Amino acid sequence: MNTPSNSNLYTIMNARKSVRAYDPNFQITKSEIEDMLKQATTAPSSSNLQPWQFLVIQDQDIKKELRAIAFNQEQVETSSAIIAVMGNSEMYKKVDQIYTQSVAEGHMDDSIKEIMIANTNATYPNAPEEVRMNIAAFDAGLVSMQLMLIAKEKGYDTVTMGGFDKKKFAERFELPAHIFPIVLIALGKAAAPAHGSSRLPLEEVASFI
Fold this sequence. Notes:
InterPro entries: Nitroreductase, Nitroreductase-like
Strand order of the largest sheet: 1-2-4-3
Keywords: Oxidoreductase
Radius of gyration: 19 Å
CATH superfamily of the domain at 20-90 and 136-192: NADH Oxidase
Protein name: Nitroreductase domain-containing protein
Mean pLDDT: 96
Order of helices and strands: HHEHHEHHHEHEH
Domain Nitroreductase: 15-189
Pfam family, one: Nitroreductase
């Protein structure tokens, strides 16, 4: 079945660009950001462990500090908010809460819940920390992309930033050892059009066998 290229999803996907020039006077409310984050967290994650954490920075003085940590990227200070997406390498510790909630919401019964909890506790705590961090980073990418598309659907603009001093960020915001920064997302209203970007031909990146 062919999907029409003018569907709302495709329109949003094609309209979303990485915006670096923001209107510093435009503000997005806390409640709007909360709604976007809630919708973004419907993204899939490994074993549904949801190993993401968010730090939403709107205070102008703190954004000024963060700009220095983010190698002086202007959008850190001029956007309405910076959403720091972080990973939780001890995501398995919330397994009981997650699957108990799944039962309460009618997504599974108690027998499946117990199997899922047992499998998680047998696997994740014994995995090397690097493996768990990689899982969290991958899942953070999924939730980040979903967040950016939701923002665009609401008429807002975003850009992701991996270029920042992650060690200094962790120190400044006193992150516990198992929480680590992955990406910063600037959120706001564009002050100038974003540059377009090209994509490699599909035949260079995809094979069919």
